[in-house]
Write a structure and sequence with these properties.
single chain; 103 residues; mainly alpha; 81% helix
Length: 103
């Protein structure tokens, strides 16, 4: 059984689990299935806006699609959440990604 199959099996029992959905999105991203990954990251953040790690990955996928405006908007949202929760590490990662395309 591959990782995607394993994650889908776990998600049958816990479909709203942000960690499992994030892991699944990363697996789709590794395979180049950006549509599935993008959809999953957006669903995670709609349901669980405090799942800060997904902002970075969603922004990077949007950059791959040359949608820099949307990427910057998601980075900004993530920075606001990271700042509100005091997660300096994630804030800095999002800020760096934001600055890379803002220049």
């Amino acid at each position: 059984m591959n990782k995607i199959d394993s994650l889908l099996k776990f998600l049958k029992h816990e479909p709203e689990d942000s960690f499992l959905n994030h892991a699944l999105a990363l697996e789709y991203e590794k395979l180049g299935d950006y549509d599935h990954a993008l959809t999953l990251f957006k669903k995670i953040l709609e349901r669980d806006p405090d799942y800060i790690g997904s902002y970075y990955h969603l922004g990077k996928l949007l950059e791959i699609r040359n949608d820099y405006k949307a990427a910057m908007e998601w980075y900004e949202r993530g920075m606001a959440k990271a700042k509100a929760t005091g997660d300096t590490k994630k804030y800095n990662e999002l800020k760096e990604a934001y600055d890379d395309i803002a220049d």
